Each structure stands twice: as structure tokens, then as C-alpha cells.
Amino acid sequence: MRMFMNDYSEGAAPQVLQALVDTNAEQTVGYTEGDPHCDRARDLIRQAARTPHADVEFCIGGTSANLVCVSGMLRDYEGVICTPDAHINVHETGAIAACGRTVLPTDDADGFLSPDAAERVWRFQTGCGRHMTRPALIYISDTTELGGVWTRERFDAICDWAESRNLRTYVDGARLGSALTSPDNDLDLAHIASRASAFSIGGTKNGLLFGEAIVINDAQLKETFPYIVKERGGLLAKGRLLGVQFEAAFQGGLYWKLAAHANECALALRDGLVANGFKPYGNSGSNQQFFVVSDRVGDALEKACGCESFYRIDATHRVIRFVCSWATELSDVDELIEFASAL
Amino acid sequence: MRMFMNDYSEGAAPQVLQALVDTNAEQTVGYTEGDPHCDRARDLIRQAARTPHADVEFCIGGTSANLVCVSGMLRDYEGVICTPDAHINVHETGAIAACGRTVLPTDDADGFLSPDAAERVWRFQTGCGRHMTRPALIYISDTTELGGVWTRERFDAICDWAESRNLRTYVDGARLGSALTSPDNDLDLAHIASRASAFSIGGTKNGLLFGEAIVINDAQLKETFPYIVKERGGLLAKGRLLGVQFEAAFQGGLYWKLAAHANECALALRDGLVANGFKPYGNSGSNQQFFVVSDRVGDALEKACGCESFYRIDATHRVIRFVCSWATELSDVDELIEFASAL
Amino acid sequence: MRMFMNDYSEGAAPQVLQALVDTNAEQTVGYTEGDPHCDRARDLIRQAARTPHADVEFCIGGTSANLVCVSGMLRDYEGVICTPDAHINVHETGAIAACGRTVLPTDDADGFLSPDAAERVWRFQTGCGRHMTRPALIYISDTTELGGVWTRERFDAICDWAESRNLRTYVDGARLGSALTSPDNDLDLAHIASRASAFSIGGTKNGLLFGEAIVINDAQLKETFPYIVKERGGLLAKGRLLGVQFEAAFQGGLYWKLAAHANECALALRDGLVANGFKPYGNSGSNQQFFVVSDRVGDALEKACGCESFYRIDATHRVIRFVCSWATELSDVDELIEFASAL
Amino acid sequence: MRMFMNDYSEGAAPQVLQALVDTNAEQTVGYTEGDPHCDRARDLIRQAARTPHADVEFCIGGTSANLVCVSGMLRDYEGVICTPDAHINVHETGAIAACGRTVLPTDDADGFLSPDAAERVWRFQTGCGRHMTRPALIYISDTTELGGVWTRERFDAICDWAESRNLRTYVDGARLGSALTSPDNDLDLAHIASRASAFSIGGTKNGLLFGEAIVINDAQLKETFPYIVKERGGLLAKGRLLGVQFEAAFQGGLYWKLAAHANECALALRDGLVANGFKPYGNSGSNQQFFVVSDRVGDALEKACGCESFYRIDATHRVIRFVCSWATELSDVDELIEFASAL
User: Fold this and answer.
1) pLDDT tens, A258-298?
2) Which of A251, B210, D54, D147 could form a disulfide with D288 if both were Cys (CB 3.0 to 4.6 A apart)?
3) Chain A residue closest to D32 (CA)?
4) Which residues of chain B make contact with D92, given a CB cutoff of 8 A?
């Protein structure tokens, strides 16, 4: 059976891979510095985001993108407010601390950073002057760690709050494709670009071999990014590979089609499992789907399709995650539903 | 005319690219953690280096490999001894300092770290106890920044010295393929593996899209590498891409054939230019060739083939560099010699 | 009225100051390296802690002591488990992150790190291999941030747990004098020294002008401390000042007498206020006393004696803190009780 | 015989110590935040430097002052240009790298940073864009490591150059008192304050128990200093001790008198030794004096007066250093000259 383990289990979408093959013999300068593919990809992204004055940069991966952007927008003693389950707080081995900056988690339990919780952190952290890390940035991810999709109303509310406190806003878009093509979504790239100080557009999890594009409005990050991405090891020597892939992804809207397809599979999986009595965990409208299952069922599914265990619920139940990608087929979904329903 | 700018101007060698295409639809776990391609590549490299007990890890690029290995072998207050032109001292935007460690350059002028110069640094740095950064590692690169190839005698001498001072040894092998296939070479992978605490085998500059393999003997680095490579953003989500490429490169000796070919082109270029009166700079036996030229000739060559300017010699002369890769053809070399000789 | 703001509001205890005056004209080498006062202070502390093989080092202040010890016992990707209100998590401006290490707070609400809560953090942080910061150290402080005093039973329980997980143990003893002379205490210096990897003995808050002594059992910290304390700016040029002060403090038990006196004042204050209807917050048996008061009463007390506001309870109530020191007199306490009771 | 080892061998000048005794029982808030002594010291320093708009901050020691100021004026990927013998490059255990920043030494051999050498470093470091650490600051010290005193002409030249390259200027004034009271000097505090982005006024080496004052013109450092000094452990809890001491030192010009006296002794020592055939090393006009001596003479002097060995000249000769302080007496100098001349 097809694995539903992750959206980085396969290689690249065929069109992206073909672009790499087609351009393989070209000779270009390195480091994303002015090769025609990076330039064209930059233009395509700026057009898609209707943000002609933004810088578009490229980074080799998601952790690298996050640590470069976060540290590039913070002074040494400043911190970034995020939810407790944020990728930068949990799954990046302390990468932000390794850059000398502090992660300041709220108590938001659903993966969405809320103005109220963020305000509590801000008040606490600014209540003792220089004796405490000063918040200067918020980090949100769309989709959230639990597959949640930010609505425009929710997004504007946290952006408004951040502005009111004079904080920058960074959106981790590792799964931004899935977010913006979800039925739950009413945001678009241009609106995000109009409000975020910087945001990433994930390639790794949406059909590229690797790579994230970063859209930068913030003047300080525009200046610091090129240096920090090199200093932190996130700059690719054959930089044009990033350009070639994002060019292929953003030409003709392939990026959105791949993401929409992954969502379609994931939502079909959700509906099929729910119809068969499975209990969803959280409320994901995107390509990751979470369910509470007994350990017996979890073990069987894990063995069959590689789905991962996420949280323990009680002594005999846990949360598992299925992930669909551009490569998943609806027939794979049907096969999984049938298998799961027979357990 | 073909560019002679760098060995990362093209994509991947056809066999490597084909391996990526052939395996594209496979589903594997991520992060180089146990997918069959990474496992097989690890075995091939361990066999080639005759070092069954070494760990073999992968990293997305050269700066990343260097900063992970160097910081992984140093305590906070320790430093790494290297030549002043070392890549970590010059061209990595302070990446070692960004990890909190200190680079301790000698006064070696030819790119080879010498025991005498290293001893002077060591004596100086250990002459005032805790008030000075303590040396704990030496960094050498084969080939050197000027294309020099380490002989076994020279290599053993610096390793002997490092051992006598209880220092670890790290070999940056970004161009190790070119080094070990040079006519000037009498080292082999197994001998390096028998003496170095860790060394890298560069893929980026020898026919891969990207990626470096790291061979680790040092017990401390074996433990720290997996964490630090993640924390520093050097771990690839679709980790098997590194395995697939190194598997292709080390199966049947492709890696060495590609490097030998680049050397052949570079040495033909050297001989052709020398025969036409060009004056070499340094003594490179590898795929980078350096020449002292007038600015007029330098400008013309730079425009024609993208060769880079390296050092200024005097008001009207400079050092330029030509680089050959697996993709260079001998006919390209002939064309360049003809062009240059007519200047 | 005397201020009850802090235990670092005054200068040094008269005996300590006199020792500085008496030795002022002596000439000694610097940096705590072998002057007779540091040596004698080291001996006195080793004797008091019955730990002849421990290293005793000195540091200029509490934040400095914490960041040197914590970073000196952690690798780059490791973290320290502590309570959420721990000084290193809240009031040191991200000093641990500034050293590249991660603080891993539990959900303990009372200032005491509990094995259960620490185990939950440990399980969570070790559940995803290298993708998460690895815990390697626990941090506790005696007294706690809320004035709590560790009992031997509680202390042994957390030490047992830490040992079972192969973690080091660090005790921040900024107010260790107050802790070990509290009526609530059944620990002693020797027992702490027998179990902690390292702990500090605070001078700043118990009668010295400044300075903390650090008792180190851990072999790694023994090696790294001398370098890191210099590298991080925590080493005093006129190092003997630390020796002179700790010598005066530990000769004849002055250190314990000063602390016991501060406790006596604080407990008299507590009893007097409780007798007059004030409501304690938490359960402090040491020189800091916390009360829940109305804002009206809080404002009046703050103005009168400089007590600080700590937490907001509700729209009209807050927690305030009174601190007594070696310099507080029982008559000051009586005056404050009388004033407070009239509000 | 009196030691001539260092200017931090004794305690505090009597007037400074008396001020500490006189104010010992006062109760003040901590952390240099608004106690009357710090405020008064700030005013006195601003008046002395005729710089009413500068911030004046305090730090516990010289390494701490340097690392806070340097890192506070640099972004993560920026570096500081200095001479190779600069304290931050040699004797602070990599403290700048520990803050993630890079030290960029010139090839100046005499301790004075020259515009020509600095320009060479600047050109080199800016010749390859983001691949190299970007210089953003120059560091000079007055006096230099070899006791050299900056003239106004020399100082203006390096400041002019720094301005022309848009670099900030930091002056390490650990021995600024000795510099500005030297016969070789034609600078004054006001002129330094009119040109430097920030500079320190050393207390440790000129009659205080410890402590440096920092005068800050730079807007960025004004904002960052208060946080970084805390984060890096350089903030004193009983902050008023710094205020009390600098108040005593700058009231009535004591600071300059102490320094002038140390200089007088040192120059008498120089003249006396030269008259007896000793060969000076370098050209110090301040409180440190360097001589080339045979090892036999060096050993005898080291044993007699604690003078330190600095450099080896050849197999049988070395450079030794004598240091005078506020506590040295002319009779001590005479005794030393007599002793040395008899060797």
C-alpha cells in the first residue's frame, strides 16, 4: 500500500523533475545570484503575490529558512512569540536558540496563535525591562502543525495585534500550498504578502526535490538575509536548482494544482474514515489528517501505510497522522479507507 | 564558449541525474534516516575508505558540512587551526564564529597547513592559559584553495603533529575527488580515513546536484553530528536524494572517473597556456588552474569564459582562475587555449 | 522606613567590608588564580561542603554563574529542564539561548521541579530523536523563586530521577544561605555537594558586595569552567576580591549567621502580617515573603518600603514581595508590621 | 620589593574605597537603574566628556564591556577590524566569536590600527559580497597593548577612515586614564566622545575595585546595551557600587591624578633603566613599560618584582613588562632600578 507518512516521501513532481533534466547542461553562476532561472522564479513569485517591491530569496530547506528569517529579524536579546507546538519550538532541535535567540511560546492549544495569548506573553515579557527577553516577532505557520488553515479574519486579527505591539510577522509557509488551496481558506498570497514582514513558500512538501522561497518585505531582513543564509549554511552552490524548480512550480499554476490535489486526497480520506466511524483529532482542512485510534488500530495502520503516531491520548489510544502529497492517488485513498474500515 | 567559472556551474552528471529520475517515485522515510539509498551509499563509502566502523553522514552543502563538523568537534572556547586562505576563514561569512568558535589562522602562504606554522599558533594560543582560545582541531582541505594536492608525506606530517598536540584533524574534501585523482597525488581514501577524525567527500563540485558525505571516526562527532546537522539546518527532508546521488557516484567508481576527467581537462589547459607563454600562479595539479595575467588579458578572458579574478598582483596584473568540471570537454579546452593565445 | 525591596539593596556586611579594607593594599596576582585569599576561601568552602575533590571557582554574579555552568555542562544541541518560573527561564534576558542552549520548562507551578513534570518533558523531548533538543541537565534553585526551601526528601527525589535519566544536576544557590538556615530546611551543604554536578553559593544576596562561589564535581565542567568564565566575561581581574569576601563569610560561619538573621526578620514579618489578617502567597520559609493584597494596600506598601509587585491576581489584587537581608533589623520589621496593619 | 606585575594587583585607591565604606549602609535599587550614585557618576562623566546626549552605562569588567559593545554594534554576520595584538583578538578567549561575531585583524605590528592596513582588510572582506564577513566596526585601544598613546592626528585619521567606509568606532579605554595623562598625549575625553561611536573608561586598572564606564553615542548601542549587558552577565546586581566608585573617581579629577601618578612612576622607571643600559621595546609613554632583556636578567626581575614575560625575541632574550599603578611609589621605582642595574 502507498505510504501516508509524509509529504516529503517522494521525489519531485514530474514537471519539476523534467525542468531539472531539461536545464541540467546549462552553465550558470552559482548561489542564486543572478542566474536566469532564479530571476524568472523571483518574478513569477512577485507577480503571484502582487508584491513588486519584495525581495524573493531561496533557501535549501525549512529549518534553514526559519532560522535565517527569525534570527535575521531579531536582535540578540529579542524573542519570537509562537504557539507551543510551533515547529521552531519543538522540531528544530533548538535551532533558534543555536542562533542565540529565544522562542517564547504562548498557551494556545490549537496551533493558531491568538492575539489574547500573544498579548499575555508580550505583557509578561515586557514587564521587567531589560531583565527579560524582548518580544520582537511573531511566528505563525499556515497550515498549522495540526493541519489548520488560517482564515483571513484570524490572520488579520493576529497581524493587527502584532502591528499594535510593533512586532514583525513571519509566516512559515512550509505547507502554504496546501493552506491556500484548502476549502477552509479565504486568504491569498497577495494578502499575506501585504501584511507579513516575511513568509516562506514551501517547495519541499509540495512537489519540489527541496527548497523554500522566502518573500521579504522587511527592510532589515532584506539586508541581512543574503549574508545570514550563507553564514548559516543555507545557501545552495548550484543555486539555480532552486530557481529552476520554483520556475516550474509557479509557471501555469502547477504549485497550486499539486497542493489542491493533495488536499483532495486528504479530505476524501477524512470523509471516508469518518463515514466508517473514525474520530478526527482537531479540524484539519488540508493535506494532513489526524485521528484518534486505539493502539491496536494504530499499530495496524502504521504497519500498513506508515502513518505516524503523534500524541498519546490515554493508556490505549493515540493520535495518528495521515499525510497526502501530489503523488497520492485517490485510488490509494480508497485502498486505505477499505483497509482501515476492516480493522 | 564554455564557462570555466566553477565546478558547480552545471547540474549533475548524467548517471547521477538518471538515478534521481529512476528513483523519483519511490517512497522513503526522510532525513537520511534509514532509507535504502542512504544505507547503500554509506556502505559503498565505508568500503571505498576501508573503514567499516566509521559513521557516514550526509549534509546539504559544503559550508554546512564544515560548520557542523568543526563546531561538533570543538567546545565553546576552543578553536581550529588552519591556513589564512582556508575556506572557513575567508569564504563562509564567519560561519564558525556564528557557531561561537574561533578560527586560528597560521601564516602559511601556499594553502598547505604546515607543522611549523601550526606549532607556532599552538604555542601562542596555549601560552596564557584560559585567557586565550584553546586549539583543539586542525582544518585542512584537499585540494587546497589554490588547487594544491596533499602528498602522503605532507599529510602524515601534519597528522603526526596534530596527534602530538592532541588535536583532532578535519579534512575538507569539497574537491577530494580532484585531489585523489591528480597526477600529483599519492594518498588514498583509506589512508585519509585511517588518520582523520572526520573528512568530507564533496558531491557538489564533482557531479552531484548537491551534497557532501562526511566520514566520521571521532567518537564525539559521531554522537553530536546527527543533532547538530539538524539544529544548524543542514539536514535534508528528502534525505534519500543524497543517498541516491552518492550511491550512483560510488557505484562502479563514477566519482573518480568524473574527477579524473576534470583534472585531465584542467591540466591540458595548464599545459596549453604555459606553452603559449602564460604564467601559472602556484602549483595546481587539480581541476582549478591559476594564472597571472595583465588586466587587459584578464578582462578579455573573464568576458569570454567567466573565469574569476582572485588576487591583485600589482597595478596592472592579477590572478585569474579557470575551473574544469566533469562537464568540460577537451574541445572546450582547446577553444579556450586558442582564444587566450590570440590575446 | 527601611526598604524591603531586595537583599541586594545594601553594600556588604561590616565584617566582609572590613576584610576588603584590611587587605586593600596587598598585591596579588589576578583572576582568582592562586592568590592566598581565593585559595583559603576555596579550602573553607570545600571543608564546609565536605567535598575535598571538588573544584571551587568564583564568578562575578548570578546570571554569569548560571550561564557559565549551564553552557559548560551542555553540548550545543542540549537543553536544561527547569520550572517555568526559573530565573534562567524568565529573568536573565535569554542568557542561556544567547549561549546557544535551550531552556526546557516543565509545568510545575510552585517553583519546585518535580520528577513527574521533568519526566514528561524528558519523554517529550526524547520522543523524536535528533529533531528535538536533547535534555542533559536539570536546574533547580534553593530557595525557589517563591522562597520555597527544598527538603532533603524532595531534593533526593529529583536527584534520583535525574540520575535515572543520566542528566546532570545544577543547583542555583543565589539564596542558598537563606535556604539552609530556614526552619523548613533539613538539607546541608555536604549533602548537596554529594549529589549535585555543580552548585553555586550566592554571595551577592547574603552580605557580599558581589560574587558567587561555584562548587564543581562534574569532570567536564571542571575542565570547561575556567575558560568559559573568561570567554563569557564573568572572570574578575582583581579576583582576590572574591576570595577575600568568601574567606570572611565562611570563616567562623558568618555566612550562615547573616542568612539566619535575614530569615528571622522575614519570618517575624510573615507572622506579624498574618496575625494582622494579611494573606500569604505560597509558602515561603526564607527571606522573601509574598502576600496577596489589594491594589490600595499594595500601592501604600510599595511607596512606604519599596516592596515589589510580582503577579496580578485579579482586577484589584496582586502579589507583593518583601525581602529581608543581613541588614534588616527586627525593629524595621515591627515598624513595617505596624504600618501595614494600619492600612 | 613591590610587584610591578599589573595595574590590577592592588585593591582600590583609598578615596574610592572610602566612598564604598561611607555609602555601605545606604539602600538603593539595583542594576545601575536610577540609584543616585550611578546618576551622579553618569553626570560627571558626561560633563567631563562634554557629551550631554551620550548614554553612560556601567559594566563589571573589561572583557564584558568589550563583548557587549562589540556585539551590540554588529549584526550576526558582521566583523570588527582591529590590530592583531588587540585584546579582543588575543586575550579574551574568543569572547567575540562566542557572541557569534568575527574579529578581523590587520597586519599592523605596533598596536596602532592604521587606515592603510584597515583599508586592506576592508577591501578584502568586501570583495566577495555575502560570502565574507562584512566589516562594520573598528576597535582601537588607548593605550595600545604595548603602552602606546594615540595622538589626536593619528586618532582623527583612523576615525576619518572609518567614517569614509561607514564603519562604527569603538575605543577600548581600559587604560584610558593612563593614555590621556601621558606626556605623549594631545587627545582629550571630549574629542574622543565627539568621534567614537562608543568608548569605555576603565576603572579596574585605575584605582577602582572593578568596573568600566561606557560612553555611548551610537543610537543602536544605546538601545541594545541595557539588554545585552544583562543577557551576557555583565550587569551588577548592586549596581550602585559602580556608581559610587566612578563618582569618587571623577569628583575633583581623582581619576586623572591616579593615572598621572602611575605614568610618572612608569616613566621614571623607563628613564632609570635606560640610563642603566636597558633596551626599551616599543615606545610606551604610559604606565606599562617594555624592555628586551636576557633570560638571566628576565628571570631575576620576574622573581624580584613579578614583571611578566611577553614575547620571545631570540633563544636567549625576551620582552618583559613592568606596570605601575596608582599604588606604586617613586621609592619603589628607585628600588627596582637599583636592583635591575646591579644584575
Assistant:
1) 999 999 999 999 999 999 999 999 999 999 999 999 999 99
2) D147
3) A130
4) 131
